[in-house]
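Format notes (please read before filing issues)

Several people have asked whether sequences and structure tokens are stored in separate files. They are not. Every record keeps both together, in the order shown below: the sequence lines, then the token lines. Line labels are part of the format and must not be stripped during preprocessing.
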Amino acid sequence: MERKKRKLHPVKGAHWFSRAYRKGQVYAGRHLVLYVLPAHDKTRTLLGITVSKKRGKAVVRNRVKRWIRESYRRYLPVLKNGKVIVIVAKQPAVTAGFAVLSEEVGYLLGKATLLDEAPQ
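Then the structure lines:
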């Protein structure tokens, strides 16, 4: 099956984050928590990433967000459409490496049955 090129669509608006926390399905890992909610637009999947100020200074928080975003991009071609995904970093995510976070993002997406097929 040919992999399709897809674009990353960020969550815009705090209401999506609060709605995901209240009504979304929760999948927790050691470093990350994944919230999944059905989207109004069934043609794309929205991604929101949260790293609390308790996790460290801005440089640390932005590094964790970049790593999570890049990990998510790896699974984008095989991701199902029509969802709002919010990923929250736990404290261990700050000391974990990129490979660990990437593996956990894939594990949580698979656990939430958001992948059409296994990534290559």
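For reference, the curators noted about this record: The chain has four helices and five strands. The mean pLDDT is 90.
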